[in-house]
Amino acid sequence: MTNTNLLPLPDNETLEKEFKKIKPLMTASEAVVESSRCLFCHDAPCIKACPTSIDIPMFIRQIMTKNIKGSAKTIFTQNILGKSCGEVCPTQVLCEGSCVYLELNEKPIDIGRLQAYATGYAIENDIHFFKAGKATGKKIAVIGGGPAGLACAHELTVLGHKVTVLEANKKAGGLNTYGVAPYKLTNKDSLNEVEYISKIGFEIKAGIKVSSNNIEELEKNHDAIFISTGLGESKKIKIPGEGLKGVIGATEFIHNLRDKEQKIVVGKNIFVIGAGNTAIDAAVESSKLGANVTVIYRRSAGDQNAYDFEVNHAKENNVNFLYLTSPIEISGKEHVEKIKCIKNKLIKSKSNIKSSIEPIKGSEFELDCDMVILATGQERMIDLFSGIKGLETDNGKIIVNKNFQTTSPKYFAGGDCVNGGKEVVNAVAHGRDAARGIDKYLMSNNTCHSHENGNPEKLVSNAGFPLTRE
Amino acid sequence: MANLESNFAGIKSPNPFWLASAPPTNTGYQVMNAFRAGWGGAVWKTLGQPIVNVSSRYGAVAYKNNKIMGLNNIELITDRPLEVNIKEMKEVKEKFPKHALIASMMFEKKEEWHDCIKRCEDIGVDGFELNYGCPHGMCERGMGSAVGQNPDVCEKITSWVTEVATKPVIVKLTPNVTDITKPALAAQRGGANAVSLINTINSVTGIDLNKMEPNPSVAGNSTHGGYCGPAVKPIALNMVAELTNHPDFHLPISGIGGIETWQDAVEHFLMGASTVQVCTAVMHYGFRIVTDLIQGTEEYLENHKMNKVTDLKGIAAKKLRKWENLDLNYKIIAHIDPDKCISCQLCYIACEDGAHQSIALVPGSRIPVIKEDTCVGCNLCSLVCPVENCISMVEIKTGKPKLLWKDHPKNPFSITKTHSS
Predict the structure, then answer these.
(1) What is the mean pLDDT of residues A337-353?
(2) CB nearest B295 (choices: A28, A32, A70)
(3) In CATH, what number is assigned to the domain containing residue A454?
(4) B197 DSSP β-pair partners
(5) Element containing residue B191 per DSSP (H, E)
(6) CA-CA distance, B259 to B238, in Å (whole number)?
(7) Pairing between β-strand B127-131 and β-strand B100-106 as defined by DSSP bridges
């Protein structure tokens, strides 16, 4: 009975059609036309909006003058993951969102796609701009081969250090390989980028999980360690029935989807709990697989963490939204069959912070349900962190100073495990700048340890608006 | 890696990209910022007797969405005291000893030239540029283009300078002449070490249709200005090549006119320039455009397995010859790629109304078809086509030997005909 409401395994043709890239690579003529629209602003707002401060007007001008190699170099100098950032960045709220053309009510420059065009050219033609620096004899371990780890490993190699990246999954790339929506970045895109970046000469050991059990040994064998483990499992929501089959965390759902290249079985009626960007991704992906998808969010639409353009994208993909609704029980024999919810009402607060909610008595209702995806945030990697002596965290996020050094001097950290979960581009900025912090620490006898002015976000992200992602 | 270091008539600079004598080289502050940004040299805003400038000073031609396709100006030479300019030039030279600093000058009297040359040499300038080009204001006082337009005067004043200057002397030429080789040869006779061209072109950029006043307006009136910017590059390229190809002209050329991108610069090099000077593009976008000039040129040299800019010198100019030396038996016709065609039919109407009625429309299709038997291979369709590489010009092997006009049967003075008759 329980399996009857699962959809059949999608065929390749459907997958190709449904998951085709929403930002396809530009053709040469598109790139020339689009690049020639750029005004080449002085002190350009787009540069300021980029967490990695790419000289955007310059790389666009270089595309216009058909100096594609120079363009790729301009991008990679600031952001070695420039290709995937061009494809997965929420450009609408970053560079493109600050384009001065918006002041004229004109379409902003298609910066993301131009960036992917130039960097894609360099990756495809295997053109490299950086070499490993003169060997310093220092050995550094990077825990986690995602965007922060890769950016850090690359920069450290440029600075002459010997780097080993330890990746828990089968493949490196982190969220680019296992997290972001496949219609933004494919597995092949991510893995090609990983290969391109690592060619500078650092080692990636995949399938190695670092935990509190083996961290001490790692510490013994390395001069410094960079933690870029990202976040942990999806949070539980603590309601009855959460243990039933068919209830899955959003991160785990997307991980599996990416791992199987979208060839997965999903339920017919899916409820996604939460309204952050991860929730929206899971909802859209499910919808593309043929499911009827409803996002359930306890607050109102104005409070949701997902970007407006992502919510609109979901609506265009037939995702339904139930606001001011909380799940209270999931039921079924072995597999989930029903979800019970209650409506909430907003209690206006006097201050400007989010108004609180209160369940409306008697408003409970029950819906048929074949799958529940929990997307109310992720746990932190508490186990690993607890194995490191002196490592302090704040609400599960590792505390670092401006050099990205943790309270345990040999350890540095960056990316989601520090900022609690932001964009790929934020992680890249952390990784790159942490590498410089590590270099400073190793090459100048441990003198950079100070937590007085520790606020790496201020240093690396001058975007000026929140980038929270749940 | 290509080496961009330049030695132009003895003036050394880290690269061949110089700022032209113009508003961007008005002050030491600007020139130092330019050198920091990567420019290899700068020709200082022209020194001379005190002048006063008007307000406003610039007019521009916009083409569709592109601002400043061409710019014109009615600004004169430097309006700052000579002592101030000399002091700042000295500071620049001290801070940037390896960059080329060239003093542009414009005077009336021999003693004035001599005095200024001495003062400039005392502070270590690398060379001089004689401004015989300014086509507005100064020419009314017998200077600027008034000199460049008169070969005898050009030669004479050049010799006044070269008789005392110990540093290389560049003569900057005006394009407002019928034959650019005349003043260039006069400069050579006067002992100049190099020439630079083109200065700006006589122009009125447009008229305010509400006020019926030409621009730029100065209290309701205007005066013709000097035209520059992307629009003048074709004129500059032709004049540079004319000098490169002249058998009696042997001086190095600093190319000026419409240089904004590395491609523009390379074109000037291919026509025979060994350095280039830029003004309008910097006035539009700032000093930072030099990054792409440098990087793009390096990349181009590497792609063509060349090591230095002078390897490019004049390669294209050699292929620029008299019309009568072109092969009349060479034939190309247009080819439309139907997969790329967006069916705008601009090629059709251009050929139909403006050329040789050699493109047809076929009922039921919006994709035009070339009439191969009547196509003369004029290029017009490929020039109006908005899609890159959609219309290509394909060579048709005629099997006939090369035929020049002098040998053509239709030529009344044909050598062949003369022989046979």
Answers:
(1) 86
(2) A70
(3) 3.50.50.60
(4) B255
(5) none
(6) 14
(7) parallel
- Residue closest to A199 by CA, chosen among A146, A228, A158: A158
Min Cα separation A32/chain B (Å): 10
SS (H, E, C) B346-357: HHHHHHHHHCCC
Q: Report CA-CA distances (Å) from A62 to A67, A115, B359, B386.
A: 5, 11, 36, 21
- Interface contacts (A, B; CB < 8 Å): 35
As for how many domains chain A has, the answer is: 3
Neighbour-count burial of A294, counting CB atoms closer than 10 A to its CB (0-12 exposed, 13-18 middle, 19+ buried): buried
A150 and A218 inside one domain: yes
pTM, 2 dp: 0.90
For residue range B183-213, what is the model confidence (pLDDT) as tens digits? 999 999 999 999 999 999 999 999 999 999 9
Secondary structure (3-state) at B38: coil
Residue pair A203/A164 in contact (Cβ under 8 Å)? The answer is yes
Q: Which of A422, A452, A424, A454 is nearest to A437 (CA)?
A: A454
Query: Strands, E, within B268-345: which ranges?
Result: 273-278, 332-336
Query: Do residues B112 and B211 share a domain?
Result: yes
What CA–CA distance (Å, rounded) separates B224 from B136? 7
Q: Which chain B positions have a beta carbon within 8 Å of A58's beta carbon?
A: 288, 291-292
Cβ neighbours around B417 below 10 Å, total: 14
Task: From the candidates B116, B120, B134, B139, give the one annotated as an active-site residue.
Answer: B134
Burial class of residue A353 (count of CB atoms within 10 Å of its CB; 0-12, 13-18, 19+): exposed
Task: Please judge whether B388 and A32 are an interchain contact, meaning their C-beta atoms are less than 8 angstroms apart.
Answer: yes
Nearest to A254 by CA among A374, A384, A147: A374
Active-site annotation holds for B228: no
ipTM computed for the complex = 0.88
Is the Cβ pair A67, B387 closer than 8 Å?
A: no
Enclosing domain of residue A363 = 247-374
Residue A107 and residue A30 share a domain:
yes
Residue A322 in contact with residue A309, Cβ under 8 Å?
no
Mean pLDDT, rounded, for B290-310: 96
Question: How far is it, in rounded angstroms, from Cα B216 to Cα B131?
Answer: 23
pLDDT reported for residue A74: 97
Structural domain harbouring B230? 6-319
Same domain, residue pair B375 and B284: no
